[in-house]
């Protein structure tokens, strides 16, 4: 089918008309009136298909005049010599008008169908891409990008509040992104020209698809938040129980020691005096550790943990943890064995040191006297591993599943904050903390951290 | 004549403890409870050392005080911080602080830090008159670039040696990752923190460090950099 671009198209159509008229004029003595009329009807159809009803009607009428003027005797007048030809001309005009209108309508319907298909495709594509998004920012980005590429919008951006401004020249549109009762933002989109109604309808449809996506994301977020709140609430109750015992014990010891120092000043032997002051210091350290653990725990549970996950060395963490044990006990109680090609891994140094120290404290508590706990570092598959190996008694099957729960009291009545915190810290790094049996007796804790930074 | 130390902290109890503690070590202790008072006291009494809390609970905070002090004074400054404040520690060092200490700390630790900082200020920075460094089992001959551990020579690559020398000639001083990269690799490497970690790890292995027995020469300052152990 013959179809061209707009300005060029008009030029070509008019050229076609002139060429046909010129050709017919040259052959006016050779061909019959019926031949000319057939050719002009074809021209009218071409006009109808390319430019619609109005152009077809104009072509039909001018065609009628041209035949009459140039091709029907007497030439160059609008008079008709043969009365039979008047009938032919009238019939030509009627056929041309009817055929032109039919062809033009066909053309309109094709155009509408194509437009529909295009709208369907855009909406389908948009919905499909929205379904995969998990944050509202991504939805905003996808929406504005689509408006700029598929709708040739001059500008498209998101206002983070509701506004129903109407622009005076109708080239700028403000659409509320609204689902249910909630308005999430306003889409502001500007075009070079005024939109036709179909385009406007389509943009509204896109905006409401975006609003639905925002609504879905909002619901998901709210669900996960309420779960976090429940967890935090459970934790708060547990902390209150623990505070009464585990915080008060060191405080009581510090207070009585200081009190003794004040009252018994002269009556204390140098040994007792030294012991009391040392007690105050170690209990203060204990308190500091406990407060640190409680802070980490509440930050972990509240989901408010900000990981500073630069590339770090697990061997450095193990070294610091081991040195800390030496400083407290002045004894060598740990053996560190690391693979030579240990890679750097993304993790938060302070938090992982806390986690590893908690595991080491736990392992040392159950290590037989004179024996060393071991810290092994290496790579297994796609994770970096640290294993904290203890050689005490095997863990009871009944205890195994509870030891990592917050505030679980083991058989010694020691409040379990250390292991759950270690677990929480490792999991915040998308890693895992597992318990295994040490061959020959004892418990081995395995920290596994992903080698690559996980995409959040 | 005793050395004058200015203690700046918004907690009266901490000021009191530090005054008693440092007084016991023979320092003359002045105190200030906020940034403005600190600057006035520093100008009026010309202290030999300032112990400055990072979070003073009011404006200006410790880092701002340190920065404005540095506009007119070279007095050594040790900042006090709390756990999980690595970024602030780097900010404090960049603002011109000489060192920092994490709360809670013991008085011996503070006294040792004060002495180390004062020693560094007195001696020409980086200068080493004897051309050699001895710490524990480690011996570094700076003249012919030889390193020995327990009497045995250790073979370091040129970069490893440069890094070790940089740390060892600044004992007790925190060297930020950026400072190390600038000095050993050049300014264009200043974002490559992991280079430092990898090289420090190699050096440690060659020096036979054993943290579990407290055999350590290079100490970690997580999120900040590294510190060579003090000679004492």
Can you give a write-up of this model?
The complex is a heterodimer of chains A (456) and B (232). Chain A has a 5-stranded mixed sheet. The mean pLDDT of chain A is 83. Chain A contains 11 helices and 12 strands. With 456 residues, chain A is of the alpha+beta class. In chain A, 59% of the residues lie in helices and 14% in strands. Chain A has helices at 6-26, 33-51, 53-71, 83-131, 136-150, 197-263, 270-301, 314-329, 349-365, 397-400, 418-428; strands at residues 155-159, 172-179, 182-190, 311-312, 334-338, 345-346, 373-380, 383-389, 408-409, 415-416, 432-437, 443-450. In chain A, β11 and β12 form a beta hairpin. The two termini of chain A are 53 Å apart. The longest helix of chain A has 67 residues, at 197-263. Chain B is α/β, with parallel strands linked by helices and 232 residues long. Chain B folds into 2 domains: 4-122, Response regulator (Rossmann fold, 3-Layer(aba) Sandwich), CATH 3.40.50; 132-228, Arc Repressor Mutant, subunit A (Orthogonal Bundle). Helix content of chain B is 39%, strand content 22%. Chain B has helices at residues 12-24, 35-45, 62-70, 86-94, 107-122, 158-168, 177-184, 193-206; strands at residues 4-8, 28-32, 49-53, 77-81, 99-102, 132-135, 138-141, 146-149, 152-154, 174-176, 218-221, 225-228. In chain B, the strands form 3 sheets. Chain B has a 5-stranded parallel sheet, with helices on both faces. Chain B is globular and about 55 Å long. Chain B starts with a strand and ends with a strand. The mean pLDDT of chain B is 89. At the A-B interface, α7, β4, α8, β5 and α9 of A face α8 of B.
């Amino acid at each position: 089918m013959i179809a061209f671009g707009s300005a060029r198209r008009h030029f070509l159509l008019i050229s076609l008309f002139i060429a046909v008229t010129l050709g017919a004029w040259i052959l006016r003595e050779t061909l019959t009136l019926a031949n000319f009329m057939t050719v002009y009807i074809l021209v009218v159809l071409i006009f109808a298909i390319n430019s619609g009803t109005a152009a077809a009607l104009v072509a039909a009428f001018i065609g009628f005049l041209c035949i009459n003027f140039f091709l029907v005797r007497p030439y160059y007048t609008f008079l008709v010599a043969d009365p039979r030809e008047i009938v032919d001309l009238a019939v030509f005009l009627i056929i041309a008008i009817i055929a032109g209108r039919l062809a033009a309508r066909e053309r309109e319907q094709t155009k509408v169908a194509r437009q529909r298909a295009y709208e369907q495709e855009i909406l389908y594509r948009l919905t499909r891409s929205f379904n995969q998004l998990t944050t509202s920012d991504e939805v905003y980005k996808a929406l504005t990008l689509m408006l700029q590429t598929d709708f040739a919008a001059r500008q498209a951006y998101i206002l983070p509040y509701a506004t129903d401004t109407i622009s005076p020249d109708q080239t700028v549109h403000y659409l509320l992104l609204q689902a249910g009762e909630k308005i999430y933002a306003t889409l502001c989109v500007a075009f070079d020209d005024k939109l036709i109604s179909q385009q406007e309808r389509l943009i509204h449809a896109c905006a409401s698809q975006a609003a639905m996506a925002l609504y879905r994301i909002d619901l998901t977020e709210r669900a996960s938040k309420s779960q976090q709140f429940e967890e935090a609430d459970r934790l708060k109750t547990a902390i209150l129980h623990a505070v009464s015992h585990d915080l008060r014990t060191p405080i009581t010891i510090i207070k009585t020691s200081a009190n003794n120092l004040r009252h018994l000043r002269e009556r204390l032997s140098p040994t007792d005096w030294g012991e009391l002051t040392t007690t105050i210091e170690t209990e203060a350290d204990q308190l500091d550790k406990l407060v640190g653990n409680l802070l980490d725990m509440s930050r972990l549970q509240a989901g408010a943990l900000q990981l500073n996950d630069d590339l770090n060395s697990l061997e450095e963490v193990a070294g610091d943890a081991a040195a800390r044990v030496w400083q407290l006990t002045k004894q060598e109680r740990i053996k560190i064995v690391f693979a030579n090609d240990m890679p750097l891994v993304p993790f938060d140094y302070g938090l992982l040191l806390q986690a590893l120290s908690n595991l080491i404290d736990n392992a040392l508590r159950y290590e037989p006297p004179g024996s060393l706990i071991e810290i092994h570092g290496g790579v297994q598959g796609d994770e970096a591993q640290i294993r904290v190996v203890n050689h005490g008694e095997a863990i009871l099957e009944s205890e195994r599943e509870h030891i990592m729960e917050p505030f679980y009291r083991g058989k010694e009545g020691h409040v379990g904050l250390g292991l759950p915190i270690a677990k929480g810290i490792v999991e915040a790094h998308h890693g895992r903390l597992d318990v295994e049996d040490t061959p020959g007796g004892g418990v081995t804790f395995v920290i596994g951290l992903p080698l690559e930074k996980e995409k959040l | 004549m005793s050395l004058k130390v200015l203690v700046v902290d918004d907690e009266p109890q901490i000021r009191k403890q530090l005054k008693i503690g440092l007084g016991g070590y023979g320092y003359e202790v002045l105190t200030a409870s906020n940034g403005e008072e600190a600057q006035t006291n520093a100008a009026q009494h010309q202290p030999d050392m300032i112990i400055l809390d990072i979070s003073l609970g009011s404006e200006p905070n410790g880092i701002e005080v340190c920065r404005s002090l540095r506009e007119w004074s070279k007095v050594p400054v040790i900042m006090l911080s709390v756990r999980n404040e690595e970024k602030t520690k780097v900010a404090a060092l960049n603002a011109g602080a000489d060192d920092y200490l994490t709360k809670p700390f013991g008085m011996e630790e503070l006294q040792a830090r004060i002495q180390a900082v004062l020693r560094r200020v007195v001696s020409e920075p980086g200068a080493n008159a004897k051309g050699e460094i001895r710490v524990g089992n480690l011996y570094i001959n700076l003249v012919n670039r030889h390193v020995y551990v327990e009497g045995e020579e250790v073979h370091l690559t040129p970069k490893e040696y440069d890094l070790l020398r940089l740390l060892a000639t600044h004992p007790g001083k925190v060297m930020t990752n950026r400072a190390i990269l600038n000095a050993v690799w050049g300014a264009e490497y200043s974002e490559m923190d992991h280079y430092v970690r990898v090289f420090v790890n190699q050096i440690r292995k060659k020096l036979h460090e054993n943290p579990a027995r407290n055999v350590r020469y290079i100490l970690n300052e997580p999120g900040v950099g590294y510190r060579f152990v003090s000679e004492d």
